[in-house]
From TrEMBL:
PANTHER family in the cross-refs: GATE DOMAIN-CONTAINING PROTEIN, NUCLEOSIDE TRANSPORTER_FEOB GTPASE GATE DOMAIN-CONTAINING PROTEIN
Organism of this sequence: Halorubrum lacusprofundi (strain ATCC 49239 / DSM 5036 / JCM 8891 / ACAM 34)
Name of the protein: Nucleoside recognition domain protein
Keyword line: Membrane, Transmembrane, Transmembrane helix
Transmembrane segments: 22-42, 62-81, 93-115, 127-153, 197-214, 226-245, 266-284, 304-324
Length: 327
């Protein structure tokens, strides 16, 4: 009994400093991100959207929806849905616009999740490379949308006369005072911390306990033919499996793995492969309810299919580049 208590104290002694450091980074990062959103910083990034719509043969007004996506994914998609329902965009033009939206939807997550939460967990080097890889994937999808619009769209896909029926003024002006914005940012930050840190504490403690008492590589040796083929260590299997169900927990699993098992390239590749598999979960849990709610079942299915196909394609290309033995 005493030995169990001693082990528990030793475990908590090891976990507590790491968890406190990560929680502090998350608290500062989440608050800074929410302040940036409250003061409209994100919209300056989204202002680049107008440069993408013209080469894609889309009206400048579509840039408003793309701008809105960087601040609110739901609002951005709802604006595009309004353009489609009004007849401004046909189905093909709407799919192109949704594809171009990808990078700007990703921008929001950089400020609200990747920088304040994921990078502190993974560490600066691995975290920055992983987030950069995800940003590159999102940007590649957006560029694909621009190129597709330039080739596939013409005036036949856009009815500019429908603009008279569409409110294309963009997001409403924010009349809150600076103090009110900061107060709301603090409230949102506390809500995020209250949801994230307890779960992080439990998962982190379990992961550290697991890797301390068990040889992870031995337990995952059954997967060596697959991981070996990809050039990944056996320890990538639990990382991928956990990441498939929960991205934060997957990052914690990777961070808790013994030092030296993963290289920078194999660590990032493992997380990206977990991202591929997580699409199956996230599609049923989030994408289908969200997209069907915005577009209806028929067109929502098309949006999900295009989004998923492009993400799978570019994540696969990125993983192949990461694991290529030529560098």
């Amino acid at each position: 009994m005493q030995s169990v208590a001693a082990e528990l104290v030793a475990l908590l002694t090891e976990v507590a400093p790491r968890l406190a450091r990560i929680a502090a980074f998350i608290a500062v990062g989440v608050f800074a991100a929410n302040v940036a959103v409250a003061f409209g910083l994100i919209r300056y990034v989204a202002g680049l959207a107008g440069w993408l719509t013209r080469p894609a043969n889309l009206p400048d007004e579509v840039g408003t929806a793309i701008l809105t996506t960087a601040a609110s994914t739901t609002a951005g998609y709802a604006t595009l849905a309004e353009y489609r329902e009004s007849g401004l965009l046909d189905d093909r033009a709407t799919l192109v616009a949704v594809t171009i939206n990808t990078f700007f939807g990703f921008v929001q997550h950089v400020f609200t999740y990747y920088i304040p939460v994921l990078i502190p967990i993974l560490g600066v080097e691995t975290g920055v490379i992983y987030v950069s890889a995800r940003a590159g994937i999102a940007l590649a999808i957006t560029v694909t949308g621009v190129l597709a619009g330039g080739v596939l769209l013409s005036e036949r896909n856009v009815d500019r006369s429908a603009l008279a029926e569409v409110d294309a003024t963009g997001p409403d002006a924010d009349e809150r005072t600076s103090r009110e914005r900061v107060r709301e940012a603090a409230t949102k930050s506390w809500s995020t911390l209250r949801r994230t840190v307890p779960r992080l504490a439990v998962v982190y403690t379990l992961v550290i306990a697991f890797v301390t008492h068990y040889d992870v590589e031995a337990l995952t040796s059954v997967a060596e033919p697959i991981t070996g083929l990809l050039g990944l260590p056996g320890a990538a299997v639990p990382v991928i499996a956990v990441y498939t169900l929960d991205t934060t927990a997957g990052a914690v699993t990777l961070a808790g793995t013994a030092e030296g098992i993963f290289t920078l390239r194999t660590a990032v590749a493992s997380l990206l492969i977990g991202g591929i598999l997580s699409f199956a979960v996230s599609t049923f849990r989030r994408s289908i309810p969200f997209q069907y709610g915005i577009w209806g079942a028929e067109f929502g299915t098309k949006v999900i299919a295009v989004n998923t196909a492009l993400k799978l394609l570019f994540i696969s290309i990125t993983v192949a580049l990461l694991l290529a033995p030529v560098w």
